[in-house]
Amino acid sequence: MSGPLSEHELDSLRCSYAREDSETIRFRNKTVLEATAQFKGELLLAQQSAQEEARIFLLDLQRQRQEKWDRVQREYDLHQAKMEEERRRRKAEFDNKQAWWQREYEKLRRHLLEQKEAEAQRQARLAAEQEAIKAAEEKRRKESEAEERNKREAEAQRQARLAAEQEAIKAAEEKRRKESEVKALQIAQVSKLAGQKAVIKDIACQEVLEKEKSFKDKLKFIRDNVSENQQLRTLSSEYRKIVRLRFNQLTNTRTTIINTATELSNLCNAARTNQQLYYHLLNEIAENLVTQAEVEASLTPTDHIAAFQLAHVCVLIAMQHVEFLDNFVMTHITTKCCYVLPRYHIRTQGQSLDEYKEILGYKKEEKEDKYFSRMQAILALYAAILQTSPLISGLTNPYGMEHGWKWLARIMNMKPQTITPYLIYTFLQVAGPRFIETYPEQGRKLINTYYNAYVGIGHQEFEVLRKESAAAMSRLESFLSNTRKNRYMFPDSPGRFPN
């Protein structure tokens, strides 16, 4: 066994171990450094590879986006080109249409100006003629007054001798006339109540049947030569639009009525050079006139304001166009409402209900109350025409109240139908005031005859009406009773006098 080591030996031994540890450590360090360098190299390669892939991906994405943008831009440019082409096309079309409308407007304006100038010249000539007539009448009046003054003294003695004789003769004639009128009315009333009045099948008199045939012939002529002529309809399309527009805008004011009638009359005057076109326009105005009355009846069945304003327009046009009222307006009125004539229709054996209603003027699937309202509206238009005084002074209605007298007398002598109370009430409500103004004495007697027939205890026919037309009979009885209480003064209907 060896002894303890010396210091020197211990230092040598420590150095030997230190060298071994140092080598081990250097080896480990080297290994670690090599591994670290290898890892860094691999990491760098991975980073470079990832960056390259990202760069390639971004370039590809940018290329795809650029291609998509170029495609969208091309489509947008193509759409813009199409839109621009369409805009230019529409602008050209609009400019052409506007130019056409401008030419038509100028053409119509020139026509109207020419007509206005012609009308002004005609009015000036008429005024000059009227002044000349007035001067001639004034001259004749003065001459007549001078002659009368010269004859007055000579006539005074003769008149004094004849005065007593004439008064006696007048008194006797007046007495006989009154007795004859009262007797005639009593005979007519008794004959009516007894159902013995000589009428053709209780539906119309011979004169009315002949008048109905005349209107039917006129309607056939209008349809064959005017209303169904497609060339005329095309030529007058703008005129027809104006006609419909004016009737739709018509109100019950004096200014509007006169302006509407003047404009429609001027349209017809502009077409006078073409007779077919002229008749076509007259027919179009008449047809719209009657149709407007029917439309207003569906809106306000008990209000006849529209009838008065339409009648004013009708009468003013008839002043300038003499054929308008009798040949066109009355043709359309009597075609749609036979009671204006007046005319009843009796259902014949073997005739279906639909065929009978078609003859009466029913529309397809029209209810009776709507039909009655429409017939009242057309009759109200007819009555309003008869009682209308032209709004322009110095003019006279060519279709006056003498036709109203005939209508009341004829329908009184006809066997009453279910619709009769409605018709009489409507006619008297619209035209009653003017009827009494025109026929103060005989009118009261005729209304009294109606009162005795419809209010008093009458024939069985009127008792049947009180059941079949209870509401209409009640309204008519109340109306006649109030009129009789007021000394046969009818109340004015709203709208009779325009604002």
Tags for this model:
0% strand, 499 residues, 80% helix, 15 helices, mainly alpha
What does this protein structure show overall?
The chain has 15 helices and no strands. By secondary structure, the protein is an all-alpha fold. The longest helix has 188 residues, at 7-194. It is elongated, with a radius of gyration of 51 Å. The N and C termini lie far apart (158 Å). Mean pLDDT is 82; it is low at 186-201.
Beta fraction of the residues?
under 5%
Q: What is the helix tally? A: 15
- How far the N terminus sits from the C terminus, by CA atoms, comes to 158 Å
Query: In one word, what is the shape?
Result: elongated
Rg computed from alpha carbons, rounded to a whole number of angstroms: 51 Å
Overall mean pLDDT: 82
Q: Please mark out the parts with pLDDT under 50 across 5 or more consecutive residues, or reply none.
A: 186-201
